[in-house]
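EI: anyone free to look at a 168-residue chain?
SC: sure, send it
EI:
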Amino acid sequence: MEDAIKEKYIVRFSYTNSHDEVKKIQVEPVCLQYKWYNWYLIGYYEKYQDYCMFKLVRMDSLQATDIKFTTSHDLSDIEMKDSNDEIVHVKLYGKAVIKAKCREYLNGRITQEFENGDFEFSFSVPEHETFWYGVILSFGNKAKIIEPQEIKERIIKTCKEIQMEYGA
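SC: here you go
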C-alpha cells in the first residue's frame, strides 16, 4: 500500500463495509491514517469524485495496478469520509470511574464536570463501527447516552436482546 501511495498507482481491492456488504473498489490511495484504533486508507474514489476512508482490515485481494493517478491530491484539502458510513455525534453522561476510559477509547472531550466527579462527554464516530459501541456497552450502568435518541434506543434494544439470550 505504501509503495502504491508513493508511486501514485491506483489500487483495487474487495471491501466489506460496516453493513457486511462486499464491494469491488478501485481508488487512488492518498495516505494511511490511524484513528479509532485502526488503520485506514484515505483514497480518492473516482466513481464518486470524492475521498473516502477504508479500514485496512476489511480489505481483501489488494493489488496495485500499473495505472497512474489522474488527480493531484493535496492532503490539507481532503475532508475525510468513511466509506458508506455516517459520522454520528454522541453525548453521554458518565460516572467518575470511567472518565479516563472515555478519554482513551472514545477520543472525545469532556463538556461538563460535576462536583461528584461525574461528567458529560461528547465524541464523534462512524455510526456502524462496533468498537466504540462495544466500549459503551462495557461501561454498563456507569454510562448513559444523552443523545442522539437513535443510539439510546439501540443500546436499550441490545441490552434487552442480551437479557433474552441469557433467559433473564
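EI: DSSP finds four helices and nine strands in the chain.
SC: 👍
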